[in-house]
Specification:
This protein is mainly α. The chain has 20 helices and no strands.
Length: 502
């Protein structure tokens, strides 16, 4: 069995460059969607449920695309067809998003845009696992972090920059400002251009070459199929299904009896648990029972239930990390416009100045991530990936909490440099740790499943944060960021227990 050859710096550069476009789109989305929703009349406590489209889309799309890309081979290759299709669809959605006439159209466009971005993004993670040997994967994911940071820093600050050149950043009530509309148009062009460069400047190993380099031989795959324990897998799906259903019912009952002021969105997470439990039992008692395991649904559920130990441990780290990030993306604009700039009126100059400054803060954390991605490579080499990630998460926690005590807009930039460090680490270290524990032939599927532990905390955040902000935090969005700081600290402790295999 041959070892994968090392790739040159420029080969890794080209295969990662598409992330510049992907994150340009995500940067515009993260920094401006709450602003668009508020401009179109959304109440503060309604913003999280409008964001629910993004994680729900990822939960469904990522494992499907990962499973499909594992089994794809055409003239463009294995992963690159998905880069291209997703980029075309996402660019179209970016053009239409800021022209939404009413709130429900904007929410729908967010759904379409996020689905399209997911189609491009998921195969990029598996692409690194396909193409790079183990010792270069930290470099590969850090290079992705660099392009993610670079794309997002430009995208996040673009409305503010355009305003400096005279493009209006305010508009009449219910109208999206021209600076936002132009930013999204530029984003669509950058997105498709960056992905096209990766598609045409990168190569992929053929199925024969992958078979030669894979850490698992074809014989090992056959043995695993021969020893498939039907009774054990049915028992496992039933246990997981029953536990999930009971947990969903208990959570629903707690909400009914102890959170009577909660609205319908709070039930999304608990109902999701029940639906997942029913799906597990359907796969076990119908598909596996009838030996129908060679289909996407059965394979994804079976792979989910039999995740490698490292992946299970990283799932906890990812859960608390992404809960904090989603709280930031939803509530940074209302938190800073009120807490620092003193306005909650989307038509006021103070609010729009604050919203533009949030774009600058997001640009700073993404710019810091682009630069610090290379520092993380050095730090991981001198210590290890777990220590590097734990330190980064602690810095992120302190940075989130510090925002509560800051009143000077300029000092916010210091906090967001710290957030840039943790963002760079989240985009690189968990994936570098994960790929060493995954079977090569299922890299895409497992990358899609790993995304569950990114989107599930986002669904939880979208379900409960609106209730927390309205009822517990008395409509002070800044407390959602404090909660995110606590979540990062839990993630930092959890990563110390992860087994890192090379």
């Amino acid at each position: 069995m041959s070892k994968k050859p090392k790739l040159s710096f420029w080969q890794i550069w080209n295969m990662s460059f598409g992330f510049l476009g992907i994150q340009f789109g995500l940067g515009l989305q993260n920094a401006n969607v709450s602003r668009i929703f508020q401009t179109l009349g959304a109440d503060l406590d309604k913003i999280p449920i409008l964001w629910i489209a993004a994680p729900l889309t990822g939960l469904i799309i990522q494992p499907i695309i990962g499973h499909m890309s594992d089994k794809t081979w055409c003239k463009l290759g294995r992963r690159r067809p998905y880069f291209l299709v997703g980029a075309i669809l996402a660019s179209i959605a970016l053009l239409f998003m800021p022209h939404s006439p009413v709130l429900w159209v904007a929410a729908g466009m967010l759904w379409i845009m996020d689905a399209s971005i997911n189609i491009s993004m998921e195969p990029f993670r598996a692409f690194v696992g396909d193409m790079l040997p183990s010792e270069q994967r930290t470099v590969g994911f850090s290079m992705q972090s660099f392009f993610i940071g670079t794309g997002a820093v430009i995208a996040s600050g673009l409305p503010w920059v355009l305003a400096q050149f005279g493009v209006p950043n305010t508009a009449p009530e219910g109208i999206i400002p021209p600076s936002i509309k132009l930013s999204f148009t530029i984003g669509a062009i950058v997105f498709i251009s960056a992905v096209l460069l990766t598609v045409f400047k990168s190569k992929e190993y053929s199925p024969e070459e992958l078979a030669k380099y894979n850490e698992e031989s074809a014989d090992a795959e056959c043995v695993r199929e021969e020893i498939f324990d039907k009774k054990k897998e049915i028992s496992s799906t039933n246990k997981i299904g029953i536990f999930s259903i009971i947990l969903g019912i208990v959570v629903t009952a707690v909400i009914i009896f102890f959170a009577k002021e909660a609205k319908g969105e709070v039930y999304i997470f608990s109902i999701g648990l029940i639906v997942f439990g029913l799906l597990e039992m359907f796969v076990g008692n119908f598909l596996i029972q009838k030996d129908r395991i060679k289909n996407g649904l059965s394979e994804v559920i079976l792979d989910l239930n039999n995740m490698p130990k490292t992946m299970k441990q990283l799932a906890i780290v990812q859960f608390f990390s992404w809960f904090a990030l989603f709280a930031m993306w939803i509530y940074t604009t209302p938190a800073i416009t009120e807490h620092v700039f003193g306005s909650t009126d989307p038509t006021s100059q103070a609010y729009n100045d604050g919203a533009d400054w949030v774009g600058i803060c997001f640009a700073v954390y993404n710019g810091a991530a682009a630069i610090l991605a290379f520092f993380l490579m050095f730090m991981a080499k001198k210590t290890n990936r777990k220590t590097t990630h734990a330190i980064s998460l602690i810095v992120g926690s302190i940075s989130f909490i510090s925002i509560f005590f800051i009143k000077d807009p300029n000092l916010l930039l210091v906090a967001f440099v710290g957030i840039g460090l943790v963002w760079a680490s989240i985009l690189a270290m968990p994936y570098a740790i994960l790929t060493g524990s995954l079977p090569a032939k299922k890299m895409g599927t497992y990358m899609g499943i790993f995304n569950f532990f990114i989107v599930i905390p986002q669904i939880l955040a979208a379900s409960i944060l609106g209730f927390f902000v309205k009822v517990l935090f008395k409509e002070q969005a800044i407390y959602a960021l404090l909660l995110g700081g606590v979540s990062f600290m839990i993630a930092a402790i959890s990563v110390l227990f992860v087994e890192d295999k090379h």
